[in-house]
Design a protein that fits this description.
The protein contains six helices and eleven strands. It is about 25% helix and about 20% strand. The C terminus is likely disordered. The chain is an alpha+beta fold and about 280 residues long. Strands 4-5-6-7-9-8 form a six-stranded mixed sheet. The longest helix has 18 residues. The protein binds one DNA strand of 18 nucleotides through loops. Its cofactor is Mg(2+). It holds the Pfam family Exo_endo_phos. Belongs to the DNA repair enzymes AP/ExoA family. This is Exodeoxyribonuclease III.
Length: about 280
DNA sequence: ATGTCATCCCCAGGATGA
């Protein structure tokens, strides 16, 4: 978001355009009471329930769901703070899937305390996910480019965070709990970015990074019908510096993911679904 | 490739974070 307050009109338009069942937000930069004051009515009017974990000034994550939002947990058990806990993780079970909305610490520079913090935080996250249920989605601003193909020029990132071996190993350890990078799996050889610096016309030259990931466990990954980055949402006036990552899931064999109570206006109780095609340009 | 955009302080623009 880079401030949900600054992004509110674009967020609401985007929700109305895409109609996602579940939304994971990062960098809301808003305390929970201020979030509710700002967006509570707008979200409730769109049938979203919320799980919030914010701060006054920095960080901040949220989950919005139309398919239930149960067993909310804020933070990552066992993760360090800097030095105090930061609002970087919220998890809940939505439509039968354990969903984690994450804002991984940036790391700043490989020789910094922030980098040590980032790696320790990721290790704690891995342990939480490893202890989680079979159906999980771990997503958000991971602040790691999984491979050199996920940055516009690997040479430009030598010595920087987001691409170092220890960060990629921490991500690999997270994936080794049984998760799939569903966007890369769908677009194995495409140039696919989710973040472009505001400066120097980087977006318009498509000089970006793919650091916003959706990682899905086996039974969830098997249901992925579309996985793409909504590059259009980065265009125009007043965007965030990140673009949303969108995943469409088929209904589960047991019927999970769908309204907990079918909308009364729909007598068949069946939810119309469309598969969104990639729109990466 | 550091050119922007956001936060805070609290009214002017510097410090900080990404």
């Amino acid at each position: 978001m880079n401030s949900v307050k600054q992004r509110m009109p674009r967020l609401l338009d985007w929700l109305d355009e895409r109609e996602p069942d579940v939304v994971c937000l990062q960098e809301t930069k808003l305390a929970d009471d201020a979030f509710t004051t700002l967006l509570g009515k707008e979200l409730a009017g769109r049938a979203y329930e919320t799980a919030l974990y914010g701060e006054v000034q920095w960080n901040g994550v949220a989950l919005l769901s139309k398919v239930g939002i149960e067993d909310v947990v804020t933070g990552v058990a066992g993760a360090p703070g800097f030095p105090n806990p930061e609002a970087r993780a919220v998890a809940a079970t939505c439509g039968g899937i354990r969903i984690h909305s994450l804002y991984v610490p940036n790391g700043r520079a490989p020789d910094s305390d922030h980098y040590v913090y980032k790696l320790a935080w990721l290790k704690a996250l891995r342990d939480v996910v490893a202890a989680g249920p079979a159906e999980q989605i771990v997503c958000g601003d991971m602040n790691i480019a999984p491979a050199d193909a996920d940055v516009f020029d690997p040479a430009a990132f030598v010595g920087s965070t987001h691409v170092t071996a220890p960060e990629r190993e921490a991500l690999a350890a997270l994936l080794a709990t049984g998760l799939h990078d569903v966007v890369r799996d769908r677009w194995p050889t495409e140039r696919v970015f989710s973040y472009w610096d505001y400066r120097a016309g980087m977006f318009h030259q498509d000089l970006g990074m793919r650091i916003d990931l959706v990682l899905a466990s086996d039974p969830v990954a098997e249901r992925v019908k579309a996985a793409w980055i909504d590059r259009k949402a980065r265009k125009g006036t007043g965007p965030s510096d990140h673009a949303p990552v969108i995943i469409d899931l088929d209904v589960a064999p047991d019927g999970d993911i769908g309204p907990v109570v079918p909308p009364p206006s729909n007598p068949r109780g069946a939810r119309k679904r469309t598969t969104k095609l990639p729109q990466n340009r």
